[in-house]
Give the backbone structure.
Amino acid sequence: MILKGKKGIIFGALNSDSIAWKVAERCVEEGAQIVLTNAPVAMRMGEINGLAEKCNAPVIGADATSMEDLENLFTKSMEHFGGKVDFVLHSIGMSVNVRKGKEYTDLNHEWMLKTFDVSAISFHKMLQVMWKLDAINDWGSVLGLSYIAAQRVFPDYSEMAESKALLESFARSFGYHYGTAKKVRVNTISQSPTMTTAGKGVKGFTEFFNYAETMSPLGNAPALDCANYCVVLFSDLTRYVTMQNLFHDGGFSSMGMSPALIAEK
Ligand SMILES: NC(=O)c1ccc[n+]([C@@H]2O[C@H](COP(=O)([O-])OP(=O)(O)OC[C@H]3O[C@@H](n4cnc5c(N)ncnc54)[C@H](O)[C@@H]3O)[C@@H](O)[C@H]2O)c1
């Protein structure tokens, strides 16, 4: 029960494959109270209602690119909790160019801006709304989910690579301001490839998933283990961890050459 008495908001639970879905379940199991949120279009699919019932959590819709929706979400959540929150998970990603199958050398830049807005700028918007509404308690914890394409080239990940680089940078920069003002920590977790709706949207995902599985000494980190890592980072056991991009990838990020992969050839 390491989150006993804590209150949090979880963005991005679309279905039971979603990383955020597992985070919501684990946070509640560890004693937290939560509010669930997703884009109105995702909520219309209805699956989140089952999770809400299981977690005894209200669902408050918000397009994470809309300051108005975010203000409404944090205001209503504080009303619901009768006070500020202690943790927030931003688990949001979407690329318009990947969805439409555009090659990296032929991207539509209007779509690219939309991708950045949904996948990265929404993180800054969320933090800014929290800041202005003073919505998080001292020593609170904010997490975003990233991927190693922010540092290394994964050609089919396309403009999501730049989105993740931007996301990680926002975490560092806002982490400075929130840390000095309120002891609030802001981090990103760089997660292994995971079989989710967003993950499977990337071209050649299955092959890539299998490649990373072999490359990583521990194998790919499953969504449930990512959720466990989030729980620890929301807890008081990690109060001085901030402005970090934390790899949760079975060791993939430290590998150079893999004998197991060569043996497969
Ligand atoms: N699946 C992977 O391989 C992998 C690896 C590393 C990092 N991540 C990251 O994990 C996070 C969660 O993705 P996932 O893999 O669980 O997939 P997912 O498809 O289950 O979740 C993505 C979520 O983003 C939400 N979303 C999209 N546009 C939105 C908007 N405008 N406002 C609010 N919500 C919006 C979707 O409704 C969905 O719930 C993303 O940031 C993703 O990039 C995923």
Notes: The longest strand covers residues 136-146. The chain has a mean pLDDT of 97. The chain is about 45% helix and 15% strand. Residues 11-12, 14, 17-20, 38-39, 42, 63-65, 91-94, 118, 145-147, 191, 193-194, 196-199 surround nicotinamide-adenine-dinucleotide (CB under 6 Å).
